[in-house]
Amino acid sequence: MDLRTQIDEKFKSAFKLRNTEEVNTLRLIRSAIKNKDIENRSGGNIEPINDKEILNTLIYLVKQRRDSIESFKASARNDLIEKEKKEIEIINQFLPKQLSTDEIRIIIKKFFSDNNISSIKEMGKIMGYLKLNYAASIDMKLAGKIVQEILEK
């Protein structure tokens, strides 16, 4: 079952169960996907976006929520922080399992040794590689911190 269908099925189920929080978040996801479909059509492509583009949209939605959480922490808005965290949980249902810090560190160290990288100037190479190959399963902000940490040693 493709990702779009999974999201639609989950939406129908949550709607029947009257789970308002989940319905609202899934409605937001469906809206973001529909916007991407429209954006895609304006570029001349009549096909709806594929699963990879849907994953990128979901990753972007999670990033937005994480950024919002940081803003809400500064304002001490715990109610909004909790709301954003719940939305992240719902969105994460459709994303691949996130790699642990240790798994990310292993991938980065292997890339460094395979490509003889030893300078912070080459950080763009590893970040590009991670984004291309692991975007859905790695928190890129965390990966950036790990890369800096390894390169500064």
Question: Overview of this structure, please?
Answer:
- The protein is mainly α and 153 residues long.
- It has two domains: 90 residues, Orthogonal Bundle (Hypothetical Protein Yqey, Chain: A, domain1); 51 residues, Arc Repressor Mutant, subunit A (Orthogonal Bundle), CATH 1.10.10.
- 76% of the residues lie in helices and 0% in strands.
- The chain has seven helices and no strands.
User: N-to-C SSE series?
Assistant: HHHHHHH
Going by CATH, the architecture of the largest domain would be Orthogonal Bundle
Main β sheet profile: none
At the first level of CATH, the class of the largest domain is Mainly Alpha
Query: Tally the helices: what do you get?
Result: 7
End-to-end Cα distance, whole Å, is 45 Å
Q: What count of domains describes the coordinates?
A: 2
Integer-rounded radius of gyration: 18 Å
Percent in strands? under 5%
Global morphology: globular
Q: Give the class from helix and strand content and strand pairing.
A: mainly alpha
What proportion of the residues is helical, as a percent range?
over 70%
Arithmetic mean of pLDDT = 90
Low-confidence stretches: none
Number of separate strands: 0
CATH superfamily of the largest domain: Uncharacterised protein YqeY/AIM41, N-terminal domain
CATH topology of the largest domain: Hypothetical Protein Yqey, Chain: A, domain1
